[in-house]
Design goal:
Layout lengths: L6 H5 L8 H8 L3 E5 H12 L7 E5 L7 H9 L3 E4 L2 H9 L8 E3 L5 H10 L2 E4 L2 H10 L4 E7 L21 E2 L3 H10 L3 E6 L10 H15 L3 H4 L4 E3 L19 H19 L4 E4 L3 H4 L3 E13 L2 E6 L8 H5 L5 E3 L7 E7 L8 E9 L6 E4 L20 E5 L5 E5 L4 H5 L5
Parallel strand pairs: 1-17, 2-3, 2-10, 3-4, 4-5, 5-6, 6-7, 6-8, 8-9, 9-10, 12-14
Antiparallel strand pairs: 1-11, 11-12, 11-16, 13-16, 14-15, 17-18
The chain binds ligand LLP.
């Protein structure tokens, strides 16, 4: 990569024959831009993790649920999960068969669980109390349980989902209570799942937790073990956000090797005939998305130089919520001086900061900038805070054409639910 401030997207020809400035002009900013080529590459990498016929990739749609993108994911042969009626609706809009959608719930209402069951989804619950709700809703049916393996990992405490400090999963010492509940409602235990947290760059803990879940399953009474159709190891696969610092990618060959030997050895040892799933969200979507915005104001406050943009934390929450790092590109000529700048948004809070003291080409009003790796947990976490409108999303197809896959909200949309 050169010292250009857009060397990364140049190097992979992210925008194809389009330029960020042209896209910004055509569709306005802020604008999420996705690359079909990159999305398909990521799907294929994950599918290649294992040739084991029992292995499948279950895309976790919370990372990004735009149906146009989901259709590509489906076309690549991935499955999809859902955890809310909205996600289920997006999956269905994209043509996923509800019979293959895992509804991985957390604290859903009785009505929401009933809706997922009525659609035909296999529902995973992560508390004894929701297992009872499921049993009352559908006695003699199937259930899946999310087990807390006691192992957690993630880029921030807010996304660690294993261990005693999190609200997720049923503790592995509660098996007797699970079995009793299954008996009470005559439920079949069709699957076990877990998710240790979001973003690991080394496969060790993920594999340790996978081994834990397999040991847990093997220790079930033979009647329940024999009913298992799905063992889902969860997601969390990290991507390198520090591209300009040449951060290494997740070691997929090592992960593949570890996972494959675990799965095949266990199949031999136990005679298991069901499926194994992984459930990545970020790895599938993050790198296929760039968020474009424009610089609206430049100011100096004491020693700090601020570049004000139209990318508030309503549009991308990750930097504010987790102190997450995203590389920023400036689509300007390469002769600008690089200086430290704090890149901020247009929201009425001092914490509305995209990047602190980042060495970037001196920005001026009207410059178009790009936030890299914004495809996952970007649009899906966007909000209407400050009554700002949700942005549009555009897709650059493999044939090079670009089209909107979601228009920006309008003021009418903002008022649509108001009552006199
Ligand atoms: N499965 C379950 C049950 C999950 O809760 C999640 C993510 C995933 C799979 C997918 O995890 P991934 O492969 O994307 O790490 N908003 C945060 C991430 C929250 C993840 C929540 N659960 C962020 O922007 O970093």
């Amino acid at each position: 990569m050169s010292r250009s401030a857009h060397g990364y997207t140049d190097s992979i020809q992210f925008f194809g024959d389009h330029s960020p400035s042209e896209l910004a002009r055509a569709y306005g900013t802020p604008l999420y831009v996705y690359s079909e080529k990159v999305l398909r590459e990521r799907c294929r990498e994950l599918k290649k993790l294992s040739q084991n016929p029992a292995f499948e990739v279950n895309y976790s749609v919370k990372a990004n649920s735009n149906p146009a993108l989901l259709r590509i994911v489906r076309d690549e042969g991935l499955r999809a999960d859902a955890m809310s009626p909205g996600e289920l609706a997006m999956d269905r809009m994209a043509g996923f068969d509800p019979a293959n959608i895992l509804y991985i719930s957390n604290n859903n209402t009785r009505e929401e669980l009933a809706q997922a069951l009525a659609a035909g989804c296999l529902v995973s619950v992560d508390s004894l109390s929701q297992l009872a709700t499921l049993g009352k809703l559908a006695p003699d049916g199937k259930a899946m349980c999310r087990i807390n393996p006691g192992i957690g990992e993630g880029h921030s405490a807010k996304v660690v989902t294993g261990g005693s400090k999190t609200k997720f999963g049923i503790n592995s010492d509660q098996t007797a209570a699970i079995l009793e509940m299954l008996r009470l409602y005559n439920l079949r235990l069709a699957g076990l799942n877990q998710h240790i947290g979001s973003l690991f760059m080394r496969p060790d803990k993920y594999l340790e937790a996978a081994r834990f879940l397999l040991d847990y399953a093997a220790a079930l009474p033979p009647a329940q073990f024999g009913q298992l159709e799905i063992i889902d190891f969860g997601g969390g696969f990290g991507i390198p956000y520090h591209k300009y610092d040449r951060e290494e990618r997740l070691d997929l060959p090592a992960l593949s090797h570890g996972l494959n030997s675990l799965m095949s050895q266990w199949q031999t040892d136990t005679g298991y005939e069901g499926k194994f799933l992984i459930e990545p969200g970020r790895y599938v979507m993050a790198e296929c998305g760039v968020l474009l915005g424009q610089v609206t104001a430049i100011k100096a406050n004491g020693r700090n130089r601020f570049a004000g943009t139209d990318i508030g934390f309503n549009v991308i929450q990750r930097p504010v919520m987790y102190d997450a790092y995203h590389d920023i590109e400036v689509y300007a000529r390469d002769d600008r001086e690089f200086i430290n700048q704090t890149v901020v948004g247009n929201i009425c809070e001092s914490g509305d900061i995209l990047a602190k003291n980042r060495l970037l080409p001196a920005m001026t009003e009207g410059d178009i900038i790009g936030i890299l790796d914004a495809g996952a947990y970007g649009f899906s976490m966007a909000s209407n805070y400050n009554d700002r409108l949700l942005p549009a999303e555009a897709l650059i197809s493999e044939d090079g054409s670009c089209r909107l896959i979601r228009r920006a909200q309008t003021l009418d949309d903002l008022a649509a639910c108001l009552l006199p």
